[in-house]
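Mods, move this if it's the wrong board.
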Amino acid sequence: MLKINRENLKSSHQLTWFIIDFVMLGLLILNLALIIWDSIYNFIAVQNLLKDYAPAIQELYHPIHERFIFYDLIFVSIFLGEFVLRWGYSIKARVYDRWYFYPFIHWYDLVGCIPVGSLRFLRVLRIISIIYRLHQYKIIDFTSTRLYRFVIFYYEAFMEELSDRIVLKVLSGVQDEVKRGSPLFERIQHDILFPRREMLSDWLSERVAQAAKQGYIPNRGALRVYLENRVDHALKQNLELSRLKYLPVVGPTIQDTLENAVGDIVANVVHQILDDLASSTNHAFIEDIVNVFLPDPAQGLTEDREKEALITLILEVIDAIKAQVHVKHWRENLP
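Not the wrong board. Structure tokens:
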């Protein structure tokens, strides 16, 4: 059911324009209803039917039908008057960059005022524009109506079908380019990524350091305990090390010493690695990794086998994307 937000209506500074919109909306609906009725009445069979079963209505309306153009021009004069009023206001308020833009933007208002045949039904566009304007200013609310839900559902279904076809067409074109051995990926690597290796190294270095600081430093103690426990458990499972305890006198001592030493070494190595990653000194390490993935083009192109594997991987990824695009989400919301 249509809702009218009276609070927004009262608080709006454009109350006068909203009142005009409601009046024009009523006149447009009345005018279109008369046009439709007159088009139906124009059939002789309808006139004879009314003459036989409702002669009072036929006698009352027939003079209006004969002079319908006159009555329609009364509506047209009101519509044109409102059009000129809004045009003048748009010039005064500098709504558009040029004073003559308004009639071009609202062309349907002018064309719909031509009292000729089907052009009259362009006044429906004027109704839609008024309703949209009132809805945009939250004066009326159509979102809760069945008509709105019906229209928006099939609009979204249509847009999803259309966009899916476009995306599938584009992805199929990309696959064809890859299969033909398009130099796109070499261009991306050599012309786009390689000149920005330093920027990528700086960015990755900063991100790795930040991740290490946030994830490692607050949990340093817990991580050390975990590593020592895991190393201790692994050493106890080691058959060769467990045999040391059978040595007379010094066996258990040697075993405990080795377990503690290995646990400390592993924990210290891991902690040192994470400390290095969390500091600015990780830049050289990250830069080496980036150089491995983005080698200098002068060093030669990727081997054919690696290129074929890369192309196969890209094609499989695109196939997976196409399969996902084929999923019709709008069908899940069918009423």
